[in-house]
Amino acid sequence: MTEPGVAIVGAGLAGCLLATLLARRGTDVTVYERRDDPRLAAPERGRSINLAISARGLEALDEVGLRELSLSRALPMHGRMVHGPAGERGFRPYSAGGTHAINSISRAELNLALLEVAERTPGVRIEFGHRLGELDMATGALRFENPEGVPGGWGGGERGRRRTARAGVVLACDGAYSAARRSVTFRPGFTFSQDYLEHGYKELTVPARDGDFALDPDALHIWPRGSSMMIALPNLDRSFTCTLFWTADEFAALRTPQEIVAYFREHYADVVDLIPDLADDFLYNPVGSLATIRCWPWVHQGAGCTLALVGDAAHAIVPFYGQGANCAFEDCVEIDVCLAETGGDWTAALDCYQRRRKTNCDAIADMALDNFIEMRDRVNSPVFRATTAARHALERRLPGRYVSRYELVSFSTVPYAQIPGRIRRQDRLTALAAAGALGLAGAGLAGARLLLGRGSGRGRSQ
């Protein structure tokens, strides 16, 4: 199978990037999106969720000429600003030299940029108002409906209309609760898990104050509170999007504006007066769920079509490393690379894609869960701060040889699956250094190089 009709389900970040990459290879692609054109629709309340775009995402955006535009619309954050219960603050840089930054950018704005690039690319057609109801693997038929009467759909937005399309390859970019994935959920041999955190999330807003930022815009702000936390990311309009990560019981415990304000005044003392719509946002913004999804295989052959799962449809992760979009972008680039390596043979390319990416996506899923514990529990610990300081010292003394996990995840393209092993070797080195058993000069440096292994490990996912 070399050049079948290709359908992408979902016009989100991954769907638009993948459509552009495939069309540039000469493949005609139709993208089906269940929602209305976002350029015509109002944003959904409490669902902005800023993205933290870092090295992996920027490399992918560079493939379609969007790196510089994205950076121009993003705000760099060079570290974490940790807020204590009494209002005390401490800045923790992400890198030893304080030079690396992750970039806060609006998900909606980045999606619009990718959508417009895809639409301008010859060979891409985008159909809005097409909610996938069924994918028939035996015939390659995709059956769509327009249940909400989306104006961008067919029939002038008439409710209840149905339509059937066909494709030889279907790429599911429709998120963690993928409709396309349902077509293979009960296939023999398909394994699937969906693990929810007990925590959900709710968004609040810190608006600009006297035309300027109310908090330091060069930081990702964290209010760690043991069992829960709040974070805040800066926006170009000088506001901050705050996200509460609380359990269902914690959300349910606050029922009145008075209870909400009193609780925040006790636990988030330095920010409560910066959120004028606190009670309204808390009471009326929705609570979202947080799940880790793992499944295998990602590629399924039917008599009528091949289905491949991409991004969150294959491997949704929790957001605590800011790697969800970055990881999905890597999937898209990997498919493009595999098609080049196999001469456009879709069967071989998609098998190559899933085997290269699976171990890497499992690795970042585990690291994201661990980083939640770090952000809410460990970040204020004196032991954690001392360990971080020791690691930064080693990074300065052994540049390029000793690199923190955060730097490897966020500021490199080292395959995710290689990072845990490298960190274990580095942790052994940290323990030796802390015990005074390792000199950082002369023979000690040679021993450090031995522990860390040869080569930088940089490159595409393998």
How would you describe the overall organization of this protein?
The protein folds into three domains: 6-76 and 99-193 and 291-372, FAD/NAD(P)-binding domain; 196-289; 381-452, no CATH class. The chain has 14 helices and 19 strands. The chain has helices at 13-24, 55-63, 67-72, 107-120, 248-253, 257-267, 278-284, 312-315, 324-341, 346-378, 382-397, 405-410, 419-434, 443-452, and strands spanning 6-9, 29-32, 51-53, 75-77, 79-83, 89-93, 102-105, 124-127, 131-136, 141-146, 161-166, 169-172, 191-206, 219-224, 229-234, 240-247, 288-296, 299-301, 306-309. A hairpin with a 5-residue loop joins β5 and β6 (89-93). α1 packs parallel to α4 (107-120), α1 (13-24) runs parallel beside α9 (324-341) and α2 (55-63) crosses α9. It starts with 5 loop residues before the first strand and ends in a 10-residue tail after the last helix. Residues 437-448 and 454-462 have low confidence and may be disordered.
Structural class: alpha/beta
Classify the fold: give the CATH topology of the largest domain: FAD/NAD(P)-binding domain
pLDDT averaged residue by residue:
88
Biggest beta-sheet profile: 7 strands, mixed
Uncertain spans, ≥5 residues at pLDDT below 50?
437-448, 454-462
Distance between the termini: 24 Å
User: Which term fits the overall shape?
Assistant: globular
Radius of gyration: 23 Å
Q: Using DSSP, what is the number of strands?
A: 19
Tell me, what is the CATH class of the largest domain?
Answer: Alpha Beta
Strand fraction = 15-25%
Name of the CATH homologous superfamily of the largest domain:
FAD/NAD(P)-binding domain
> What portion of residues is helical?
25-40%
